[in-house]
Amino acid sequence: MLNLIKMKIEKPAYEVFEAFVDPDKIGNFWFSSSSARWETGETITLKYDLFNAEGEIEVIETVENQKIQFNWGLAEELHTVTIILNEIDQSTTVVEVREEGFKDHDEELINKMLDNKEGWVFMLTCLKGYLEFGVNKLREGLVK
Questions:
Q1: What are the residue boundaries of the structural domains of the chain, listed by start?
Q2: Smallest Cα–Cα separation from 134: which of 23, 13, 29?
Q3: Whether the Cβ atoms of residue 111 and residue 135 lie closer than 8 Å to each other
């Protein structure tokens, strides 16, 4: 099963790409911190201070200004996330997030897919706020 989310960001693809892969920028809209720059083959530790949480991702592939693909989650529920950056013109990029790995026969499938989709939409909203308007505190407003 596949979760698919898209959002238009009024910034060029290189700025969107850097927001994800640069450890100094990701904390402005998503995780509190990232242990290193996201590069193909790297294992990155991500911290989320708001929930006192930490986890690792394995970066499968990065294509500068075009694509970021990584695995995350527990071994039995490993998901692959692909972020595609489609630059429409020099000032607009459509960000597409695809998450795969949901189990078809999981009794909680719909709830898990909706929860994750909600998370991706919120993350993209925070990215838009950060890149377009300089707002870097939206993520802190999430209440679960």
A1: 2-139
A2: 29
A3: no
